[in-house]
Each structure stands twice: as C-alpha cells, then as structure tokens.
C-alpha cells in the first residue's frame, strides 16, 4: 500500500541584528569562545533582559513579506527546561501571542505553483553551544550564540513531498535574504529547518502520527531525510506496525534517521508569561512604515523580469534567487540592453565563477560595467563569442578592462575577407576528401572545415565570416 | 551622642558640615558592630575594612576639595540578595556561598556613585523565601528587642542591623512583605516602593512580578532620603517605570493631615489579630484623626484570597527564576557526579534548603501541563480582582492604614516547622505586592511583652510622597521611632 505524506516545517532563522535579543553583546559568528557574553546572556543572578528593537523590526519585516498578520500586542513567555547551554534554565520565547500569524508563501514545484500557509512566526533567543571534545572528560559550553535573536517560522502541514519542502525552504530563505533579516547560512546554523511528517492512506482526512526531524543542515539532506523517513514509515505501516510519535535525528554518515527522544520523554515546558518583560505594543503606524520599506520580493521580481525583459521563466527564477544577482543583471541590462544575452552571461560564466568563490553577485570582483564592456566587444565583432568566453575567467580575476586584456593577448578578431579568404583557400586545398564529400551533398562536413580554418587563424577569425566565405568557395568552385 | 545612634539625616549633616570624618564614622560603627553583632548576627559578610579604606580615601580628597553627595560617607548595609561587584552576594544560600558578582545592581551603582560606604551584606531567608531569617543557610539573625525572637524576614538582617545601630540605614527587598514585616518586628521604618519605582536590575529574583527593593531606616525622613537616590527609571530593567522622581523629603514639611482621607479596611481587623497590635493600630488611627485626617471604613473583600494567590504566583515565578542554579556556570557544583542529570540533581539537592525546595516544587506543579489554568491562570485572575479592589477603595480614600503584621515578633522555632503559620505572618502585606502599590511600615507602639508593633500605610501607585507625609506627621507627634531596643 502507498500512502500520502503530510509535511509541516519549522524554521529557525537567525536575525541579522548587530547585538543580541536581550542585551548589547555582539552576534558576530566565530569569535573566541565566551568572548561575546555579559551578565544578561550568561543568565547571572539578578540580570534582566531588555528587548532589542532591531530584532522586533526584522521580525515584522519578515512577517509582512510572508503575508502575515502582525500582532499589535506582543508577550514574551518562558519555556522552561534544563540544558547546559541554556544559561537561565529557560528560553525567552513567545507562546500565546506570536509576533506574526496566518501568512502564506507561494512556491513552485516543477511547473506547478502552490501556496504554503504560515501558521505563526515568533521571536525567541538562541541557546549557546555545547562542545563534546573527543577524549575530554566532560563537555564545554560556548555562550557566544546564547541570546542571538531567532525567528521561528512554522507552516501548516501543507506539503506533500520532499521536493515541495525543499522548494518552500529555498523560497523562504530567498525572501529572508532579500529582506536582509537573515544571512541564510545553513552550515553555520543561521537557517535551521526541522520538518515534521506523517503518512496516511490516500483519501484519508485525519492525520497519521507525526515524527519530527532534526539535525539537517542542507537542502540535499532535507530531501534525503524526508525520503528516508517516508520509506521507513511506509515499511512500518505495511508490516502492520504503528509509527511512534518521536523526534528523530538525521544521521549523515549512515544516511538514515535515528530516534532522539520519544513522546514520553518530551518536556513539559511550563510556559508562562515572562514577568521581566512588559507586553510590547506595536503601533500601527510603525508597522505601516516598515511595510513601505519592504523591497521587491523574488516572486514579484521574477514576474517583472518575464514581463518586462521577455526572459524565459527559468532565467527569471535563477536570476531572482538572490537579490545581488538580480540587481547585477538589471544593472547590466540598463547599460547594455539585450536581456537574454545578459542573462546567459550572468547565469553562465559569472555564476560559475561566483559559485567557485562562494560569494554573492553583490560582491563580485567583476563589476556590471566591466562585463558589459566585454559584451560590447563581442557585439562590435572585435572578438568572437568563443574568445570572450575563454578570457572570462581572467577578466573576472584580473581587474583589467576587457579591452586591455584583448589587446595584450592579441585576440582581436579577424574579419577582413582577404586574410580569411587566404586561410579558406589553404584549407580547401589541404582537405580534398572532405571537400568532395561536401560537394556530394554531405553538408555536415562544413563544420569540420570551419574548425580547420579557425584553427589555422589561431581562433581569431570571425566564425560568421569563415562560414560565409567557406560556403561561397565550396559552392562557387563546384559550378 | 554616639555616632551610631544618629539618624541618616543627622549623620549626613554632621559629615557635610565637616564635624565628623568618614573614618570616624566607620570607626564608630566598627566598634558598635564588634559589640553587638555576636548577639544579633545581622550580617553574612562584613565589609568594615573596605569601608575604612574607602573612608580614608574620601577624607583625604575632601581636604583638597570639599564636595559632598547626600549619601557620601554613610555606612549602609545591603541585603545579601542585591549584587555588589567584588563583594560576595550569597542570598544566604549554600548555592551562592562563594558567588562574587562581576557587576553592581543598579541601586548599588547609584549609592556607589554618591560614595556611600558599604558596611556589610545582611542576612535573609534563603533567596528571600521566608519571614524570620530562620531559612538562612548560615543561621538566623536575632531580634535586638529580644534575642529569643526572630527579626522577621526575609530582610531580617537589614532590619536587625538598623534597629541595633549596626548601620545607619539599609536596603531590603520586599516580595510579600519582606521589608515591612521585619521593619515592624524590629521597630524601624521599612518602605516598599510602587512596583517599577526602583530598578530590580541586580536583585537576585525571587518572584519578578512582585519583587521590589526599598529602604529600611531609623525614621521616615531617612526613608525619603534613601528613596531619593534609588528611585527612577533604569534602561536595564524593562519593568522599571519612566515616571519622574520628586524630592521625597519635600513631602515631609506639613505637620497636619487636613483634607486627607484615611481608609481602614475592616478585613484587616479580624480574629487572629493580636490584641496589643489591634490596640496600638487603632490608637494610631485616632492619632491620624487628631492630625486632621478623615477616617473612613472601606472594604477590600478579596483580602482573604491574597495569601493563596501569592503562593501560587510567587512560587511559579520562583521555580523558573531559580532554574539557572544548575551547577554549570556559577555557584555551587556538586562533586563526583555521574552524568548531567546527576550533576543537576546533586547540585540542587545540596545547594538549596528545604523552604526553597518546597517552593520550587509548588511552583513547578502549578505551571505543569493540565494544572496551569486551575492554579496559575486562576491566581492571575484573582490578582487582577485584588488590584481592582484597591483601585475602588482609592476612589474614596487617599491612603489605607492597617496593622503591618498580625502579631509582634514571634520566637525562634515557633513557626519554623509549620510553613502555613509562617506564610500567614505576611497576611497584611502580601496583597500590597499583588496590587503593585507603595506601602510603608513604621513603629506605632510596644506590646506588653516589650516588642515593637508596626502599622502599615498604603498608597496609590507612585504616590510614595503621600504615604511618607502621613507616616512622618504621625511619627512627629508620637515619637515611637525614638524607642530603642534594650541591647547595648
């Protein structure tokens, strides 16, 4: 028997504030252990939290972009549990009145579009990190991360496949990065996802027993873990067993999920309103002022690229995946026109280099101005497309202008008929067999002959011209 | 007159006038402490030596450049649940026996800015949970009026130190009566400000929505002087109110109470009230009438629910506030533990005393899944009703006068085996914390057995001036505050 999978997702997105959620400590990643701490984020006796306004503003930005209702009255609650990296023995979070509720986001899976409902998004503080060093007699704790603001974004159980989940996560991550509220770094844990899923017979209306998945730090593992879990649960059900309500960890080495804790071991968090923080009132005007500053989001931008630039949907999606890449593309189009040509270069050569370097287009060493100069050289026929592609990596790294580079390397394209004509004559003379084949109607050999001319020119001949002259030569001599 | 017998106001005037040096003040108090402390045991940590070093620096500087602040050179004691940078802050708990805070509470920073002299950290019931100091891990303090009696609690060390002239004034904290009840038991003045009037930053939290720091002093003027310095908004405490701070001593000029309406809630004069206390407080009310006050009977119908509501809400908050004492980062860590759970359990088992454990268990229970609505939720609802009762009453009257405690100080051991009896000793003070109101306890008589009796004056939110005015006018005509305990 096959089953329908029902999936919801919790995402913990670290907000990009310069200071922590409830104190003034820095949130910079990678500082030496416990260097970014104070009495408040260490939970020293007597210390008190104070809400970081920047974090609230970022949460509101995210909520508005996710089409959420923003709660005008915010309460913070304590979630009580013991763990060494939780300094106060409770986490300050939101329980009854999350800052954002009832939103939605449209995702694309294949050619289909689907709306995923956002149940809530709430503010909370991150915990520290417990480090278990091999061979050490105990564990050590780094509280630098403790108190970093998080936005926990929870969907309704609206997804039905691993692909939908991945698409949702990519879309959400793009949106948060566009808004500049999260850096989206999954490896460093700035964007952490925890899918929960259950199976039910096709057509059933009630949900099956839910399993939560943790410890997943890339989109690939999201898919792997969900697909593994679907198989595991299907097997359990088909063998007449019951799926147990539990939290499972993705084990990367073994490529499987393993039990972390069962429902019976689940905590009673004893949530109650944090008496150290007065309810936070959000003025309607303030929310509207934030709304007015929202940037154009990926979906809207993609639609505009298709409409205004005539780009294929694929190009529009790729280009708008990052705000930096989209801005880069638009700057080039402003300078040069020809959106599809620009798109090919930005998605192809440029993205390849950026991916290797692992940087966003916003920080590309090759400016849109310098790329456009290269495109102009091609357009004017000064260099061939092939040469342009060949010199691209060097152009990207060198900091020289395209013209300087072409000049230094003597790569200017040869277009004059006399020079090319001489090469064509030579090639025709040297390849009697292929010339005969062409004249017998086997026109595929033309490509070979063009290649030979190009080779003879050291790649500098204008391929269009070569083609034209070669055809003329072959057909004229035949008559 | 010996320096240690002076009030804060008097000592301040002598010091400002240059009649006495800071070193002379510390020396006098050092002698007094050496003499009476073995009997009273008000302090957990004495800081006479640091105070003397500080005093000498002050005196040298004042010779060059005579510029003083109101609390400069004043030997003040701080309750040991208020953080003092570099000086142990134990909360009278084994859990924090060796804890030295790396920072000052905001109130301490304010005193330090005026160059007060920290004379010592005073004893309390562990984590401020108790009404006698018998729950201190380091042993109880004694009542200077009768060494067989408790000084009250939880700020018993502060009240005893002020009453025995071991300091000129002290800070305490009040969650359900912990300033007012010991002040009443020791015959001194204790003021619990409006919730939010004084920053809680650096006060080791017991019940965050109820805790408030306040002065314990020899008379009403001194309370006003100290409140002047510690009151005000603190950006480090979101629950501190951004309300302007007046000069509270200005409220003390009027000698009469004309046009002032004084409410007397009948619910506070029922069975269980000691006849001596009843007599003294009723006489005090007559005195207020003589001063021009208009006495009115009022109702506070939910008074009987206050203790129950308090022990749900305060313990709920405490169970969470005390979770940070887990042996990981500071304070006690149990030795020879098998694993993490064992570390938690042994540390908390060894670190906390029985009353703290009792309250953590109570609080954990009332917040548990399935019980939250019946206990915590219900208690919050009743708390709102108690607050509304006061709001209604304050439409008719300007202040409310009650006994501060149902009895004078009880004997050591008398109630320590019966938590409920102990809890009931705060029955007249608790509802004030639940409503977040300001209230002052001040001496209004002496019982047949020779123990002081205290009355309580409650005011509207942020109307500390009004209760100080009433208390001061009363004090000026009756002079109960000049009665000193027999200890020499």
CATH superfamily of the largest domain in chain B: Amidase signature (AS) domain
The average pLDDT score of chain B comes to 96
- DSSP strand (E) fraction of chain B? 5-15%
Shape of chain B: globular
Query: Residue share in helices of chain A?
Result: 40-55%
Structure description:
- The complex is a heterodimer of chains A (479) and B (488).
- Chain A has 479 residues and is of the alpha+beta class.
- Chain A has three domains: 3-287, no CATH class; 298-409, no CATH class; 417-478, Arc Repressor Mutant, subunit A, CATH 1.10.10.
- Chain A has 15 helices and 16 strands.
- Chain A has helices spanning 53-65, 162-178, 219-238, 284-292, 298-309, 313-319, 323-336, 339-357, 368-379, 385-398, 402-409, 417-430, 432-439, 445-456, 463-478, and strands at residues 3-14, 69-70, 73-74, 77-80, 90-93, 100-109, 112-125, 129-131, 140-142, 149-155, 191-201, 211-214, 246-251, 256-262, 272-273, 280-281.
- In chain A, a hairpin with an 8-residue loop joins strand 8 and strand 9 (140-142).
- In chain A, helix 7 (323-336) runs antiparallel to helix 8 (339-357), helix 12 packs across helix 14 and helix 14 (445-456) packs across helix 15.
- The longest helix of chain A is centred in the middle third of the chain and has 20 residues, at 219-238.
- The radius of gyration of chain A is 30 Å and the shape is elongated.
- The relative contact order of chain A is 0.09.
- Chain B has 488 residues and is an alpha/beta fold.
- Chain B folds into two domains: 3-262 and 404-482, Amidase signature (AS) enzymes, CATH 3.90.1300.10; 304-379, no CATH class.
- Helix content of chain B is 39%, strand content 13%.
- Chain B is built from 15 helices and eleven strands.
- Chain B has helices at residues 8-16, 22-40, 48-64, 106-113, 156-163, 180-186, 220-230, 275-290, 306-321, 340-351, 354-367, 373-396, 419-424, 430-435, 464-478; strands at residues 43-46, 75-79, 117-122, 169-174, 189-192, 212-217, 261-265, 294-298, 399-403, 439-446, 452-459.
- In chain B, strand 2, helix 4 (106-113) and strand 3 (117-122) form a beta-alpha-beta unit.
- The longest helix of chain B has 24 residues, at 373-396.
- Chain B starts with 7 loop residues before the first helix and ends in a 10-residue tail after the last helix.
- The mean pLDDT of chain B is 96.
- The interface between A and B is large, with 28 and 45 residues.
């Amino acid at each position: 028997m096959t089953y329908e999978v029902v999936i919801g997702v919790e995402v913990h997105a670290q907000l990009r504030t310069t200071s922590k959620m409830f104190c003034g400590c820095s949130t910079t990643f990678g500082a030496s252990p416990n260097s970014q701490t104070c009495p408040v984020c260490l939970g020293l006796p007597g210390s008190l939290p104070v809400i970081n306004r920047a974090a609230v503003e970022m949460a509101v930005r995210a909520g508005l972009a996710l089409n959420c209702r923003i709660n005008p009255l915010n309460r913070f609650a304590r979630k009580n549990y013991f763990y060494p990296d939780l300094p106060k023995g409770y986490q300050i979070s939101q329980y009854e009145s999350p800052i954002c509720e009832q939103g939605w986001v449209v995702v694309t899976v294949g050619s289909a579009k689907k709306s995923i409902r956002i149940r809530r998004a709430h503010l909370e503080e991150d915990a520290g990190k417990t480090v278990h060093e091999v061979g050490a007699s105990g564990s050590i704790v780094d509280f630098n991360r403790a108190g970093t603001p998080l936005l926990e974004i929870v969907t309704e159980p609206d997804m039905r496949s691993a692909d939908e989940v991945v698409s949702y996560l990519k879309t959400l991550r793009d949106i948060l990065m566009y808004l500049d509220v999260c850096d989206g770094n999954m490896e460093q844990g700035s964007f952490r996802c925890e899918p929960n899923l259950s199976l039910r017979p096709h057509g059933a209306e009630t949900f099956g027993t839910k399993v939560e998945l943790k410890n997943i730090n890339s989109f690939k593992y999201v898919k792997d873990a969900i697909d593994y879990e679907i198989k595991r649960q299907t097997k359990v059900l088909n063998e007449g067993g019951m799926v147990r309500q539990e939290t499972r960890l993705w084990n990367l080495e073994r490529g499987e999920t393993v039990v972390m804790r069962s429902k019976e071991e689940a905590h009673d968090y004893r949530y109650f309103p944090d008496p150290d923080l007065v309810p936070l009132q959000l003025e309607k005007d303030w929310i509207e002022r934030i709304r007015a500053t929202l940037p154009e989001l990926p979906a809207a931008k993609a639609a505009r690229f298709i409409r205004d630039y005539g780009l294929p949907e694929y190009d529009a999606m790729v280009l708008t995946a990052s705000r930096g890449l989209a801005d880069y593309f638009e700057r080039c189009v402003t300078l040069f026109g020809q959106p599809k040509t620009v798109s090919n270069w930005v998605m192809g050569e440029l993205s390849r280099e950026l991916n290797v370097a692992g940087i966003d287009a916003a920080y590309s060493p090759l400016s849109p101005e310098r790329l456009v100069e290269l495109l102009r050289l091609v357009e004017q026929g000064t260099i061939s497309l092939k040469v342009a592609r060949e010199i691209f990596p060097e152009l990207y790294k060198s900091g020289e202008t395209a013209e300087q580079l072409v000049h230094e390397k003597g790569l200017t394209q040869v277009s004059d008929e006399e020079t090319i004509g001489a090469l064509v004559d030579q090639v025709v003379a040297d390849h009697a067999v292929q010339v005969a084949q062409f004249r017998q109607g086997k026109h595929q050999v033309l490509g070979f002959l063009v290649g030979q001319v190009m080779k003879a020119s050291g790649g500098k001949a204008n391929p269009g011209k070569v083609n034209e002259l070669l055809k003329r030569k072959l057909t004229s001599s035949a008559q | 007159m010996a320096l240690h017998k002076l009030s804060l106001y008097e000592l301040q005037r002598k010091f400002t006038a240059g009649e006495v040096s800071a070193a002379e003040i510390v020396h006098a108090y050092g002698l007094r402490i050496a003499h009476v402390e073995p009997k009273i045991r008000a302090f957990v940590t004495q800081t006479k030596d640091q105070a003397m070093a500080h005093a000498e620096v002050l005196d040298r500087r004042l010779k060059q450049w005579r510029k003083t602040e109101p609390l400069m050179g004043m030997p003040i004691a701080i309750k040991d649940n208020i953080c003092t940078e570099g000086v142990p802050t134990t909360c009278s708990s084994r859990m924090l026996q060796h804890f030295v805070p790396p920072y000052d509470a905001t109130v301490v920073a304010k005193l330090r800015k005026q160059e007060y002299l920290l004379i010592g950290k005073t004893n309390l019931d562990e984590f401020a949970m108790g009404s006698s100091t018998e729950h201190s891990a380091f042993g109880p303090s004694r009542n200077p009026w009768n060494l067989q009696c408790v000084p009250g609690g939880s700020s018993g060390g502060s009240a005893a130190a002020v009453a025995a002239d071991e300091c000129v004034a002290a800070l305490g904290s009040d969650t359900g009566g912990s300033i007012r009840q010991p002040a009443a038991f020791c015959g001194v003045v204790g003021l619990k400000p409006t919730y939010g009037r004084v920053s809680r930053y650096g006060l080791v939290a017991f019940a965050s929505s109820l805790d408030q720091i306040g002065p314990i002093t020899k008379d009403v003027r001194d309370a006003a002087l100290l409140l002047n310095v510690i009151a005000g908004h603190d950006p480090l405490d979101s629950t501190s109110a951004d309300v302007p701070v007046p000069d509270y001593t200005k409220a003390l000029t009027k000698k009469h109470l004309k046009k002032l309406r004084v409410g007397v809630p009948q619910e506070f004069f029922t069975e269980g009230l000691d006849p001596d206390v009843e007599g003294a407080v009723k006489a005090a009310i007559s005195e207020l009438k003589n001063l021009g006050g208009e006495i009115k009977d009022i109702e506070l119908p939910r008074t009987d629910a206050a203790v129950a509501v308090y022990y749900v809400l305060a313990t709920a908050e405490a169970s969470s506030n005390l979770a940070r004492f887990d042996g990981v980062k500071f304070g006690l860590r149990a030795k020879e533990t098998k694993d993490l759970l064992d570390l938690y359990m042994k540390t908390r088992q060894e670190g906390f005393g029985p009353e703290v454990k009792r309250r953590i268990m109570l609080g954990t229970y009332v917040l548990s899944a399935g019980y939250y609505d019946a206990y915590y939720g219900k208690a919050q609802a009743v708390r709102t009703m108690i607050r509304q009762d006061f709001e209604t009453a304050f439409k008719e009257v300007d202040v409310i006068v009650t006994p501060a405690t149902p009895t004078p100080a009880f004997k050591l051991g008398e109630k320590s085996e019966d938590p409920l009896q102990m809890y009931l000793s705060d029955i007249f003070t608790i509802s004030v914390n639940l409503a977040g109101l300001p209230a002052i306890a001040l001496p209004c008589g002496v019982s047949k057995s020779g123990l002081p009796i205290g009355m309580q004056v409650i005011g509207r939110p942020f109307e500390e001036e009004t209760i100080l005015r009433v208390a001061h006018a009363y004090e000026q005509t009756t002079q109960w505050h000049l009665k000193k305990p027999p200890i020499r």
